[in-house]
Each structure stands twice: as C-alpha cells, then as structure tokens.
Write a structure and sequence with these properties.
UDP-N-acetylmuramoyl-L-alanine:D-glutamate ligase; about 40% helix; about 25% strand; 14 strands; alpha/beta; five-stranded mixed beta sheet
Length: about 375
C-alpha cells in the first residue's frame, strides 16, 4: 500500500506544469537568525567528538547540578530561521510564489534573509529574533530569544505594513499559513485581526488556511482555547488544516482534557489522541507529523502513512516547516490529503538529508529513490 501511494504521488508530480501554477501563498509571522550548532563532547586528534543524542547531552548537564560546567559549541551554519521564512522558502523552492511577513530587519533586510528564494517577497516588520539550534541525531534543542516579537500586535500591523497592503497580499493568495503561535505574545490578536478585518473584504474564492501553533506548553489553557476558537472562524472562508508534531499533539491532548474536565486515558495511541483532538476542535483536517510517519484525521476518516526515517540528518531544524510546505503545495494543487502527506514527508526528508529545501526536480528524485527502497 505504501509503495502505491509513493508511486502515484511521483507520477502526479512528473505531470505537473509548474509554470501554470497561478496560486500564491501568504505566510507569517516570525523571523529568526538561526545558529545551527553541535555540542562538543570531547576534543580528539581527529577533531571534535559531538554529543549525538539528547539523552547523552542531558545526562552530561545533569552531572553539573550543584557545580558548574562549560560546554563548547560549534556553529556549523548561520541561516535564516523561523517557521514562516523556512516554510516560505520551501514553498518557493517548489515553484510557489510566496509573500512572507515577519521580522527580517528593522532598517533593511538582514543579509541572512537576502539568501531566501527569489520567489519570496519579504514584508519586514522589525528586527529578527535569535535562535541557538543544538542539533542531535535524535532531535534538536531550540534556545530562542524572542524579545523582538513583544511589540507585535494587530494595531501595529495595521500601520506597518498597513491594512491596505495586507488586504492586497491576502487577496492575491490561495493559501494563508499562520505559524509559530506560541512565541508571539499577541499572535491570537493578529489571527483575529486577519479574520475580522481582512477576510470579509477580499474576493469570495475558497482558500486554504494552514495553522501551526508550535509548542504550546508556555501558554495557558485559556490562551490556547481562545486561539482554537479563532482558528475555527476561518472555516467560513475555506479549508482549515491544523498541523501538529508529536510533542504538540501530546500537549494539546492534555490541554483539551483539562478544559473539558475529563481524565487523560493512559496508554492510548497517537491516532486516538489525535481523534480526540479533532472531535474537540473545529477544523477541516488535523495533520500530525511525527518523525517517522504522518497522520491525517478529518470527517472522511483517518489516514496514516509511513515516512522515511533519516538516521543521520544533515539538519533537523526546519524539517517540520518543509513538511508543512509540501503538504500545502499538494493542497494548492487540489490533490487529495494522502498525496499531500506524501509530498510533505518527501519534502521534509529531502531537506533533512541534504540540508536545504528541495526544488521540484530534487523532490521527484528523492521520491524515486524512496520507492526503490520500499519492499
């Protein structure tokens, strides 16, 4: 069954005429300068030996309790970061013209964001946040300074870049993706502003809306519930997808149980948790992407497809954003959810394996190699 989905997806992508893809995307609303780093375990004659797992790194830090410790970091790359610009860059690499709003520099576009794909138009609203992304073979630890986001609310955006500009940009787009809810203090205010002040004023064609709340653990249950209510309002204007990784699924499941005053069931599967979430929120599709597969839950049922696990990723920071971009491209192409999931997993896998967002040719090549590896 897996090979059939992969093969069908590959054939559909080969038949695409990307020049005829007259469907644009609007993505927001963050912006980081990412320092992609490895933590040094020891220095050897051959060079540094790194901590390869988060568990080993955590055990090393734990031994420093009550004492002190210094950990050497090696910066392997300085690159553009943030859910919005990485997703926008990934969409553009696949041939989708994209507008990205976020923090790319106050007095001008920072040089790191000038490296973004030429198909991306940047609307900068302030200085960038900073991230130290510690990479391991089994995941990553993101250390972020998000002070530049503290002043961003809807009234600010109505002045810069201005309501007329925002209306024009959203009106021209078939996809609106709003991401990184947890790190912007007034993200719900911004999402509500777009819902109330922009969508009623644009043309009535149905759009695709994609939301990514990121890790909600630092926000209150009440804040999360308010954000979910705002997301539900977008259903009046198109198809709404909420994307979650495994950790975010666990957090949202726990939150909704607390809000509904129901006990959490123990030892239940990720699909069962996702089904509970879907029944307690109002979206067209719930999309869950663990590192080794993807799950879609909607009124038509549950779909689960296995991915290709990358044992030694060249980079993992941004893998989820590339998955989201691939899925959203599939939706822009009016492909079914399962095909969109395959595109998402292949796009993420190619990015994690090679350290950059794939072009359509790269994506097709990755899928072809993946098919050969499936029994």
């Amino acid at each position: 069954m897996q090979k059939i989905f992969l093969t069908n997806t590959l054939e559909k992508l080969k038949k695409l005429d990307l020049k005829s893809l007259n469907r644009k995307a609007f993505v927001g609303l963050d912006g980081y300068i990412d320092f992609i780093q490895r933590a040094v375990k020891s220095q050897t004659q051959k060079g540094p030996e790194y901590f390869n797992t988060i568990t080993d790194f955590a055990n090393h830090i734990g031994k420093a309790a009550g004492k002190s410790a210094q950990i050497e970091l090696v910066t392997q790359e300085t690159k553009l970061g943030g859910n919005a610009p990485i997703m926008a860059d990934a969409l553009a690499s696949l041939g989708c013209e994209t507008t990205c709003i976020g923090n790319f520099g106050k007095l001008g576009i920072h040089p790191v964001f000038q490296q973004i794909h030429a198909n991306v138009t940047l609307l900068s609203i302030g200085d960038s946040a900073l991230t130290n992304a510690l990479e391991f073979h089994d995941g990553k630890i993101i250390l972020s300074e998000v002070g530049p986001f503290k002043h961003l609310n809807w009234n600010y955006l109505k002045k810069d870049p201005g309501l007329k500009t925002l209306i024009a940009q959203v009106n021209s787009c078939a996809l609106v993706a709003l991401v990184d809810w947890c790190n912007l203090p007034y993200s719900t205010d911004i999402w509500k502003g777009i819902l109330l002040d922009i969508l009623p004023k644009i043309h009535g064609k149905e759009r695709h809306f994609f939301f990514d709340i990121a890790d909600p653990s630092r926000r209150s249950d009440e804040e999360l519930l308010e954000a979910l209510d705002v997301i539900a309002g977008y259903n009046s204007y198109g198809k709404v997808t909420l994307g979650l990784n495994e950790n975010e699924t666990e957090k949202l499941y726990s939150c909704l149980n607390r809000i509904n005053h129901t006990p959490e069931e123990e030892d239940i599967s990720l699909i069962e948790k996702g089904t509970f979430i879907f029944k307690n929120i109002d979206v067209w599709n719930l999309l869950i992407h663990p590192t080794n597969r993807s799950i879609s839950i909607n009124n038509q049922g549950v779909s689960e497809l296995n991915g290709k696990y990358i044992q030694k990723p060249k980079i993992s920071t941004g893998g989820g954003d590339n998955f989201n971009a691939g899925y959203c491209l599939g939706q822009l192409l009016e492909l079914d959810v399962e095909t969109s999931m395959v595109i998402g997993m292949a796009n993420s896998g190619a990015y994690v394996q090679n350290g950059k967002s794939p072009t359509m040719d790269d994506l097709i090549g990755y899928l072809a190699r993946w098919i050969k590896e499936v029994n």
